[in-house]
Amino acid sequence: MSAMERVLVTGGAGFVGVNVADRLLRDGKHVSILDDLSRPGVRTNLRWLREQYDATGRLQFQRGDVRDVETVRRAVRGVDTVFHFAAQVAVTTSVDDPRHDFAVNLAGTLNLLEEVRRMSTPARVLFTSTNKVYGGLEDVEIVRDGDRYAPADEGWRTHGIGESRPLDFCSPYGCSKGGADQYVLDYAKSYGLDTVVFRMSCIYGPHQQGNEDQGWVAHFAKQAMNGLPITLYGDGRQVRDVLFVEDLVDAMLIAMSRIDLTRGRAFNIGGGPSNTLSLLELIDMISDLCGERPHLEFGPWRVGDQRWYVSDPRAFAAATGWAPRVDVGTGVVRLFEWLQRHGHSLDLEAVAEVAS
Length: 356
Prior knowledge:
- It is a single chain.
- The chain has 356 residues and is an alpha/beta fold.
- The chain has one domain (6-355): 3-Layer(aba) Sandwich (Rossmann fold), CATH 3.40.50.
- 45% of the residues lie in helices and 19% in strands.
- The chain has 13 helices and 15 strands.
- It has helices at 15-26, 42-53, 69-76, 91-96, 98-118, 154-159, 171-191, 216-225, 245-257, 259-262, 279-290, 314-320, 328-355; strands at 6-10, 30-35, 59-63, 81-84, 124-130, 142-145, 148-151, 195-200, 202-204, 230-233, 239-244, 265-269, 276-278, 296-299, 308-309.
- The strands form 4 sheets. The chain has a 7-stranded parallel β-sheet with strand order 3-2-1-4-5-8-12, sandwiched between helices.
- β6 (142-145) and β7 (148-151) form a beta hairpin.
- α5 packs parallel to α7, α8 (216-225) runs parallel beside α11 and α8 (216-225) crosses α13 (328-355).
């Protein structure tokens, strides 16, 4: 990616978006953000970016919705690369309102692909998909292992879930993101676009506006820091591989710089088997950081919740040489320290946004 490259980040005021935009701007790129600012707290991220980079003249912001074709058409004009993060991000919300979920995640992505296809020199596109495209993994035999679940099969334990796993969309969210995932891949085949899909596991780190429906690592930490109870849906032994956001940004930039090797491919991206946490294990870590254990409440299992999911990132590593650098212990401490500095103001702004 050249210094003069122009980059569009849809959903650029969100957690992943602000981290990608920050890195690109630090590297001297011109960055345009398209965001409808509908998610509580994202105005804080946008204001922070503006404070850091408005003086450079390389940051532009357009408030808009990917469901609107004209908005997307204006946004892609003149850009070389698109990081497409704009999405409805919660399984629970998708169950409550599947039409909205479809319109944003699938129709919005198709709008973007079509407008990129219309460009005289089509931009490269990286799309963030989800591990939910693999469904509930009901055929993977799970056993209890202390405060976590684990596969009975040693191969699953050692390597995680690879891209050869059959797709099995579950929940409206899984369907909308999975459908968009397939469109993004097909536009490389059918139209020759330079597209890449990241099927992501759990990402965490600074600027995460975690809540009960999405961003559970930050949500648990914020609840504990504020002396509030934490609700676990299920028994808390669910396991995910977690990836610190700086490592994700590294992977995304590498994917775009090595488009000759990544084009038209989907990659499972996460911390992998060496960076895993159960919900209960995260509670233990947060308890140590806070000096006391938060009060836990339990609710029923939620639709599409996998008892165990760990990414196998070997395909992307083989293609690019990428590997996570921030281990779980270090990453959780870094997030906790960031929330100690910024969490209170984030909560106040989120409340103000909801009230306005």
